[in-house]
Write a structure and sequence with these properties.
7 helices; Rossmann fold; alpha/beta; 22% helix; 2 domains
Length: 375
């Protein structure tokens, strides 16, 4: 199935049903009282998370979503039926942006989570509603109001605990294929990975984490070069970044220089990435000429954890996955137990959401973190 991570749709909630003008009539009641019923409320439109979906491609063929309108009221005090709520299934990780105002309306972050994006119209009142001691035969009714309508931009960000960062052909797809059941395309040319890949890495029976592999970055990615820019947003939801460094680049480039170029692009996209933990992972350590890379990474990034691996031979993979699992477990526990930490994480999510929206709309306004961060 084609991977589509952005779509624009129009949603329209149902109109409220009109109130009814009616007076009771019968064989012995030629001039009965008012009995016009109220209309029904219009149906809402909601976006609901579905764990089985992983693309927004369906919205290319369903650009308009319209909920059912409420039915009009009837005589004999009959209330019109309310319009059914329209539940639109979307992948978990979908962010909802109002195209007209540019504001974020919500974030579908869990299966079956529902976000109401258009409220149904309010029902109209029949003439029986206006009956009083001073107005025994009202002829007044009200129509149902129109439902809300909006043009929405949906953006899908994959949800993972760990994100893989690096140049094209740094070994990201090979790593995720080796440590999980994911089967990404692997080849010896740049940009083999064209869409994000997710893999569940199991370290024990009840211990696992989700890893995300996105297309490789190149210099200028934050300005639109290459494929990585388009998918940088998929790293915004990850909590730990593994920066994969080709220890023996075929083009003879400097591994440390490559690292700095990639991270410049990352921080240019969003200053929030400076708040994330980044571990350095030297790949292809089985190749000749890779021996000194870990030492150079230690000099260049002394405050970061470092690992040397070979996905081809399995060298260092167990140490890496166990260390990541321990970090993810501590993060999850802290998120549950530390209210202040959880609040800070939500603030970071809000800031990075603004960054993603600015890039999506083609704007380049600095975020608060980007302005205050030290390079």
């Amino acid at each position: 199935m084609q991977f589509v991570d952005e779509a624009v749709i129009e949603v329209e909630a149902g109109k409220g049903g009109d109130g009814c003008l009616s007076f009771h009539r019968g064989p012995n009641l030629p001039k009965g009282g008012p009995d016009g019923g109220n209309g029904g409320n219009g149906g809402d439109v909601r976006l609901v998370g579905d764990a089985a979906l992983n693309t927004l491609v369906d919205f290319r063929f369903m650009p308009r979503c319209r909920a059912q309108s409420g039915r009009a009221g009837g005589g004999r005090d009959k209330t019109g039926a309310g319009g059914a709520t329209l539940d639109v299934r979307v992948p978990v990780g979908t962010r909802i942006i109002d195209e007209e105002t540019g504001t974020t309306m919500g974030d579908v972050a869990a299966p079956e989570q529902a976000v109401t994006v258009a409220k149904g119209g309010v029902r109209g009142f029949g003439n029986a509603h206006f009956k009083s001691s001073t107005n025994r035969a009202p002829r007044q009714t009200t129509p149902g109001s129109a439902g809300e309508s909006r043009r929405l931009r949906l953006t899908l960000n994959v949800i993972a605990d760990v994100g893989l960062l690096g140049m094209p052909n740094a070994g990201k797809s090979t790593l995720i294929a080796r440590v999980s059941a994911s089967k990404p395309k692997i080849a010896d040319y740049p940009f083999t990975t064209l869409v994000p890949n997710l893999g569940v890495v199991r370290v024990g029976e009840d211990a696992s984490f989700v890893m995300a592999d996105v297309p490789g970055l190149i210099p200028g990615a934050s300005s639109g070069a290459g494929l990585g820019y388009r998918f940088l947003k998929h790293l915004t939801r990850t909590r730990l970044l593994l920066h994969l460094v080709d220890a023996a680049p075929l083009d003879g480039s400097d591994p440390v220089g490559n690292c700095r170029q990639i991270e410049e692009e990352l921080f240019a996209y969003s200053g929030v990435f400076r708040e994330r933990d980044v571990w350095m992972v030297a790949t292809k350590m089985d190749l000749t000429g890779s021996e000194h890379v870990l030492g150079r990474l230690a000099e260049a990034f002394p405050d970061r954890r470092r690992f040397g691996i070979s996905a081809a031979t399995g060298l260092g993979l167990d140490d890496l996955t166990r260390a990541v699992m321990a970090w993810v477990s501590r993060y999850r526990t802290r998120l549950e137990d530390d209210a202040e930490f959880a609040r800070h994480e939500r603030e970071l999510n809000d800031i990075v959401a603004d960054d993603v929206r600015r890039h999506s709309l083609g704007r380049r306004v600095a975020s608060p973190l980007r302005e205050s961060s030290v390079g």
